[in-house]
Specification:
Order of helices and strands: EHHEHHEHEHHEHEEHHEHEHEHHEE
Structural class: alpha/beta
Helix content: 25-40%
Radius of gyration: 22 Å
Strand content: 15-25%
Bound molecules: iron/sulfur cluster
Strand order of the largest sheet: 1-2-3-4-5-6-8
Distance between the termini: 49 Å
CATH class of the largest domain: Alpha Beta
CATH topology of the largest domain: TIM Barrel
Oligomer: single chain
Number of strands: 12
């Protein structure tokens, strides 16, 4: 008898830990501004964040992760890391939180740290790889190399964690070719998840200086969407989940006027998926008629129609009437069309 395994619904409880005393100076980073908060939350505040989130999350049949984002977790003093992790213990013991995920730098992974994380139910470790081309890493003042990412990834996998590798596009010295290389290396290093962040120029960073002196040109929104489309398709094919495309529109960036330049869009992922569908639906544009019905999987309907109806508008140039329908019999990016000419 076939066995059906239902994937549990997933919830994240995000806690931002800005790196207040980060010894690095990555060219694009003003850590406090990127996550919109100046200070790391106190322990009792984290408890409040967790409890507030838990009131909105079902008690059973779900997967809930506590996610420490925003900095270089394993660069914190050992005792601080321990304190943050221990805070989650009662929730893990009671089953309300199923695991912990955190993000950190590739050169801050070692056996001692991994032992600590393992003991405290950390399940996913995300590394900020950003690029896997050493010249781009150097120009971005990341102070680590491709080899560091490879070594750290191997250790993380050897300890049985799920590996996430984040990448940025459009860093100084980056090209589409180098970004494609980075994506392929991320796959080879065994990552199961990734995030793709287009580089933005944030106030108070070295990149801002370069930009103001015409020494750095950010990607245009069109370029960032087009690169991301290619990367997303590569990751999808390899079974690597792209859990974020574009920076989260945090309040700090949007309300504080902190972004100087760069391809920011609040619906960046939707723009990328619109372009993927635009390519899929392109053959339709080669013919025309009175009316066309396009059936797609329910979860794909918005992307097929396109951000701001972009794809619908394109098709309307060839057909007087265009209707999109959700169809439960279709999955992923399958589609069916019916052209009516009477
Ligand atoms: S990106 Fe991370 S490592 Fe680089 S300066 Fe910012 S906090 Fe430090």
């Amino acid at each position: 008898m076939p066995e059906f395994v239902m994937k549990k619904k997933h919830f994240n409880i995000p806690v931002f830990i800005p790196q207040l005393a980060c010894p690095f100076q990555c060219i694009y980073c003003n850590q406090r501004k990127i996550c919109g908060k100046g200070e790391a939350p106190a322990m009792n505040e984290i408890n409040k964040i967790i409890n507030t989130h838990l009131t909105t999350i079902p008690e059973k049949g779900v997967e809930t992760e506590l996610a420490f984002f925003g900095g270089n977790f394993t660069g914190l003093p050992f005792t601080e890391q321990q304190a943050y992790l221990e805070l989650a213990k009662p929730y893990i013991d009671s089953g309300r939180i199923t695991g912990i995920r955190l993000s950190t730098r590739p050169d801050y992974i070692n056996a001692e740290v991994l032992e600590l994380l393992k003991k405290h139910h950390v399940t996913v470790i995300e590394l900020g790889a950003q690029s896997l081309k050493d010249d781009v890493l150097k120009l971005s003042k990341r102070d680590h190399t491709e080899a560091d990412v490879e070594t750290a990834s191997k250790m993380i996998l050897d300890y049985g964690f799920t590996l996430g590798l984040q990448m940025m596009i459009g860093l100084p010295g980056d090209t589409l070719e180098k970004s494609l290389y980075t994506a392929n290396r991320i796959i080879q290093f065994g990552a199961k998840q990734t995030r793709i962040y287009p580089t933005l120029v944030i106030r108070g960073t070295k990149l801002e200086n370069l930009f103001l002196n015409n020494k750095y040109k950010p990607l245009s929104l069109e370029e960032a969407v087009s690169w991301s489309k290619k990367l997303l398709l590569i990751f999808e094919k390899a079974g690597v989940e792209v859990i974020r495309l574009g920076l989260h529109p945090s309040e700090g960036l949007l309300s504080g006027n902190e972004m100087i330049a760069g391809p920011f869009h609040p619906s960046f992922r939707e723009l990328v998926l619109t372009e993927i569908w635009s390519e899929i639906l392109n053959p339709i544009l080669k013919s025309g008629g009175k009316s066309i019905e396009i059936h797609v999987a329910p979860g794909q309907l918005n992307y097929a129609i396109g951000y701001d109806g972009k794809n619908r508008k394109l098709i309307q140039q060839q057909y007087k009437k265009v209707n999109f329908y959700p169809d439960d019999n279709l999955e992923d990016r399958q589609f069916k069309t019916e052209i009516i000419n009477h």
